[in-house]
Here is the input.
Amino acid sequence: MSSRRDFLGTAWAAAGAGAAVAGAAVLGKALSGSPEEARTVELPEALLKRAEKDGSLVHEGLLVRGPATAPVVLDLTCTHLRCRVAPVEGGGFSCPCHGSRYDAEGRPVSGPAPKALARPHLTRAGSGFTARLS
Amino acid sequence: MILGRLTYGLLLVAVLSGLALAPFWSAARPLESLETLNGATPWGFWLRGVHALSSWGFLLGTLAHLVEVLSKKTDGRLSPGVWWRSVALLPVSILALLGGFLMRGDAEAQAALAVWREVSASIPVVGRALAALLLGVPGSDLAPVALHHAGTFTLLAWLLTAEHGKTLAPDLRSTVLAALGSFAAAGLLPVSLGPAIAPAGALLLGPWYLLGLQGALLHLPVTAGWLLPLFLLAVVGLVRHVDGRWRTTLLAVAAAWSAGYLAFTVRLLLAAR
Amino acid sequence: MFRTRSLVALLLLALAGLLAALGREGQREATRGRGSDRAGGKVERCVTCHVRPEEDQGGAHARAAVGCSSCHLGNELAFDKARAHAGMEPEPGALRTVSRTCGRAGCHVREARRVSTSLMARASGIVSVNRWVFGEIPEPRGTATMAETLAKADPSPAERHLGKLCAGCHLHTLRENRDDAIHGNGSGCASCHVARKLPGAVPRPHPAIDARVTDDRCLGCHSRSGRIALTYEGLHEVEKDQAGACGDAATTLHDGRPACRAEADVHRLAGLSCIDCHLHTDLMGDGRAWEHSEEQVEITCEACHGPARGGSEGKETTWSEVTDPISRDLLRQRGETRPPDERVRLGRRGTPLWNLRPSGAGWVTLRKGQGVALATKQTPIDPNHVLPGHERLTCSSCHAAWAPTCSTCHTRYESDGRQWDFARSAETAGRWVETSDGYTARPPALAVRADGRIAPAVPGMVMDLDATAAGGPKGSRRLYSSFDPHSTGKKARACESCHLSSWALGLGTGTLSLTGSRPAFRPATPAPDEPRMASDAWTHLDAEHPGVGTRVGLRSLDAKELRRTLAVGACVSCHKDARDPVWKDFEASNARLAIGRTRCAFSTKG
Here is the structure.
């Protein structure tokens, strides 16, 4: 019996220590204020030209459309809880998680989505662009 | 306390079947590997069924045992520390099961991962870091999820159960019964997988035990994803410390919470129709 | 802890469960495919089962290259049939899912988008004309599509008419909706590009997919309404009781309708298919939402045969100037090249006719399907083609030999009947009934289009409409439609067939007399509402306003044009040749006639 208690005690001590270390690390990371690394997606010229030719295309969760020299990019991540939205027939997008609907321009139409689909900041990168997602 | 012992047995069955499943699962191609297990591996579907159903049984047993303890007012027999840790078994079990659900890698699992990342991130100060620790960062594979599913939460669940049950392992008879029950259930109730991509316009649901929370998020801010469960745990935990009218009140609050949870479940199911 | 009875019950349950598991495992093992589970460099478990050679159509869409799910969707990761087939598209290319099948990224995105905005999909012309005829919109134009019409929760009488009769020929209409009028697969790309399913053969081989669309694919839809596909083949639909009248020429159409054989289009006789003349933009659209088919179609007679008198049509450039990416892709796919300095003719909006090539001093038409190149005659600059007064004539005004004609159409709605409703994918209450007293095949009448040019026309909607039971109007309509009937003859119609034909002039059937001081016409059957007008006409000699057609601005010849045409008609009986000096300056010839320097007597029947 005592061995069980000893074991449990040791186990709890180990678990506590583990939790403390992990907690400290998490807290440390959170408090260090290091900003979340923004995700960047390269949009090479060939891809932009294909999007222009086809009207639009989806690449790495981004909807790319418009002319290759001045593309319009929509982040297909729902602004509610960040599920991937999907294009729906007749234009617009819908979120499979909580049913938010957006119009073809990414503006919220119904459901819990609080704002329009994000438009990543684009910077020139050679003959293409780099999309920066916040 | 048969229920409690049987639940412990189910935990053991879940752990052992999980260990047997581990070699078949791939963090990089989770759904593909599970489809192979289900469709192209002899008895693979059954093994997966045993694992899923024993763990569901464990969760249901834990819940039923909690209701049993509260209704029989036997909570007072546990020391406050053990009581609170026993209450914590509930979220730990759910987190362990949720990890298993996320490891399916199908459309529902991917959606659930996104939602839980946001729920976790909404915790003040540590949220984002905690989400990254438990669920990995967006774009990463499911290895962190698997680690906490098989490791962290399973070990914690075991520890909490062992402490609560005052024994390091379930007795043989409970284990045999849990195993037989799981084996039978896995033959009778095959556990499905979903498609890799959600059908257009479909509403994804997530694991059955979290439908109420998913339904609540249709209407409530994302912080409800952790505040609501925390509130219930606090209420249930406090029951051990009060008597009479206060106990009745707290139990009524917990019951009302459960009714609301069921209502949100129904709400979501109706929305998905 | 446990009673024996409980233990026994549990053991029995466990046994049942294990037996069930054993059964499932046996079934899984027995039904699992044994083929490779990869295709096109990805996991594709469809091909573990679908291993039969006849399930592989080869070519660019070979099973090994694209698997099954690229086109048919479903769950390519699953092994078991039910789950693998969940969400499957039995008809890839159906417009409801085309963006995930043929039109998926990396495949035919551009084409899928074009087709989705083309008139075959939108059918906005049919929608607007139909609604206008029912009196629901002020003019026969609009951008409302058939899909929007079918989706309406509370459709108007015209929209219900469309949903029950017209929607069958519309690419959005689900295949399983289609009635016996349209054979094969037909709700998107497959309508044209997939060979007809062979009935009976089970297991069926995978139908062929081909860019070289054969005429039988066009026939399904274009054997209706203007029936251009039938006319092109030299087939003339008749009513059942008319079938005997054409004797040995009687035949039956692909869908059982009775027909008579007539003269086929000269292009058909030369072996040209629909796609040999029609450009990709004619058929699949150019991405713009045109309202009517004549707006979308780019090909003109002049594009191949050259202008009759140096008009604006028949544009030409060199390949170095061609930017159309689809034409370039088509050439590349066929392994053909064009030297940059090679001349190329263009459609109305500048799309190159890539299969028309210069050859020596002339041009040859390459067949897009099988067959040798065909020398393409250029319009001669001869008196027939530069005759003064004919400047406004389109080629088909003279060269269309005949057109299917029905001037006794009755449309009524019966609320106690039942009929398939394409909008609801089910048979619903109410039925539209169309009857006629018979079809004829005769030279087309002439109309004046909104652009002022003269073109063939038929009494498209000379009809009685009774939609009162559907809450719609009741009354008669007297509308002609203009289109190229696709009956180009070896020879142009004779002068008399217009100038001395009351039918051609839109006066309908009756007796035309030019002997008096002014032309006179006696209708064979006067119209009930206007005794001066024939029942199958759209104008009469004293009409204040010309007859109205099914397009904004489309009209019959007006009174002045009729008088001028008939004045010529008085002379063509004798002066049959275009080289006859009287035609050099008809005004002067007429002046000579007026002072009695010639002798003429004429009388004819229309």
About this structure: Residues 401-573 of chain C form one domain. The first strand of chain C starts at residue 38 and ends at 39.
